């Protein structure tokens, strides 16, 4: 027996544990969906068909022997910035990359929980942009509107989950790269506390601004994947106190004080919240208020937080470029940004890293008055495929900031945020809103998101089937 594509992560794990289906059946179905949609959606860089089927058979043997693990036999996907033993980690780049010898820590933990990794999903070059396109693999398309991007940089993971190819996937978030594609594909996306999901073999990714996170159709599934992937390598520099995300899903959040923040943080470039997106976020604020929470407009004291982001992002990129086996094949924008990163790698980087403690104190004080910040995830709906690909570096930055000015400050802070679906605009393009909290606040954000989901039931909406299977070839 196979399960319907609507069966999520938790339901798949339950059905396997109860003997209602087999891992081989679920993995075969996932692989068939991937194969059928790869010419149209192009969600995957690598499909591990043979290896995944072998792992499924091993999972079925364990299930038959009475072994029980949280995700035993369930197919999932990971973004192609994560090491999977025996596969290359090209991270959106062109050229033949060598296979890696070992799983990264997050993948190792997924396997320890019993998950079957069916493939690695597409991402833009070194995860820099809110679109998932490039000469290395073409364009990954949005299951809701194939002429539009699913966002980036975890666009392949978002497209795969939104289309029902897999029930959940890992992504990574350095300036909104989980939350932005989640918002543009009608998903729940959890960016956890820095260090919650290890980025090992890198103790820090992009100077600490990038963390691994989860994408799923429901809060419960995103939380289940978060618990499965969470934990640290013994040499990780950031080791937050453990949480139980799944337990938080069923917990009432209590009556919360919510700060509705519609003003973009200072970016030095124009950013304006589009009216149709504003309307959806305001409606979500009304929904939250109707649940008994106190909602009032207030903006965190961000100040010049952007001055601390640029050195960390560009130095982190320069570190990746220095390791690239084929630097001549990299996008000119990548090489230019890496050049800037090499200039900022001394005193500017040290100053940016020191500023984080000051920002923690200043913005942390805001949470003495409020429990959660509600903000737009993006200022605009998803752009059309190809609209940012040919731009210069400066023009790309302008377009990126205009569309996505809201997510990146929480990467500087290293604190958790959860994207929740906010509805549709402009004829069916998904948009989202973020629930943002202070250090270690994932349980509170998850419980609030689950309370909203029970009311709004966003997971019941699916992309048009024709768009999933008949979209233009990438």
UniProtKB/TrEMBL annotation:
Stretches assigned to the Amidase domain: 26-445
Transmembrane segments: none
Database matches in Pfam families: Amidase
PROSITE patterns: AMIDASES (PS00571)
Record-linked Gene3D superfamilies: Amidase signature (AS) domain (3.90.1300.10)
Protein family membership: Belongs to the amidase family.
Official protein name in the record: Amidase
Organism: Streptomyces coacervatus
Upper lineage: Bacteria, Bacillati, Actinomycetota, Actinomycetes, Kitasatosporales
């Amino acid at each position: 027996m196979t399960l319907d594509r609507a069966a999520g992560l938790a339901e798949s794990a339950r059905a396997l544990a109860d003997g209602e289906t087999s891992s081989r059946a679920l993995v075969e179905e996932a692989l068939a969906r991937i194969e059928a949609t790869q010419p149209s959606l192009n969600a995957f860089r690598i499909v591990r068909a043979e290896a995944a089927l072998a792992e499924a058979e091993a999972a079925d043997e364990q299930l038959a022997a009475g072994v029980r693990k949280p995700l035993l036999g369930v197919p999932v996907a990971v973004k192609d910035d994560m090491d999977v033993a025996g596969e290359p980690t090209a991270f959106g780049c062109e050229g033949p990359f060598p296979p890696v010898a070992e799983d990264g820590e997050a993948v190792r933990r997924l396997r320890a929980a019993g998950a079957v990794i069916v493939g690695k999903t597409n991402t833009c070059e070194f995860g820099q942009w809110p679109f998932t396109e490039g000469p290395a693999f073409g364009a990954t398309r949005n299951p809701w509107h194939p002429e539009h991007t699913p966002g980036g940089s975890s666009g392949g993971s978002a497209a795969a989950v939104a289309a029902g190819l897999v029930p959940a996937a890992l992504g990574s978030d350095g300036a909104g790269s989980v939350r932005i594609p989640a918002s543009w594909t009608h998903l729940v996306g959890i960016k956890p506390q820095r260090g919650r999901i290890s980025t090992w073999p890198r103790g820090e990714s992009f100077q600490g601004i990038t963390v691994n996170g989860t994408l799923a159709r429901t809060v419960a599934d995103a939380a289940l994947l978060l618990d499965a992937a969470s934990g640290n390598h013994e040499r990780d520099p950031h080791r937050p106190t453990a949480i139980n995300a799944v337990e938080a899903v069923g917990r009432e959040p209590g009556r919360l004080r919510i700060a509705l923040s519609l003003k973009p943080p200072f970016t030095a470039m124009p950013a304006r919240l589009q009216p149709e997106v504003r309307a959806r976020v305001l409606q979500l604020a009304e929904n939250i208020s109707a649940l008994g929470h106190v909602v009032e407009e207030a903006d965190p004291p961000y100040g010049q937080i952007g001055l601390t982001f640029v050195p960390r992002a560009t130095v982190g990129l320069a570190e990746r470029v220095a390791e690239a086996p084929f630097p001549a094949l990299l996008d000119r924008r990548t090489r230019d940004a890496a050049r800037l990163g090499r200039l900022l790698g001394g005193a500017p980087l040290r100053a940016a890293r020191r500023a984080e403690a000051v920002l923690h104190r200043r913005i942390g004080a805001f949470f003495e008055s409020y429990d959660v910040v509600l903000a737009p995830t993006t200022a605009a709906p998803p752009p059309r495929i190809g609209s940012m690909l040919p731009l210069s570096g400066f023009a790309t930055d302008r377009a990126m900031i205009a569309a996505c000015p809201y997510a990146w400050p929480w990467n500087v802070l290293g604190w958790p945020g959860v994207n929740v679906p906010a509805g549709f605009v402009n004829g069916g393009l998904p948009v989202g809103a973020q629930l943002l909290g202070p250090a270690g606040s994932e349980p509170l954000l998850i419980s609030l998101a689950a309370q909203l989901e029970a009311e709004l039931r966003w997971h019941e909406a699916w992309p048009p089937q024709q768009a999933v299977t008949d979209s233009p070839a990438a």
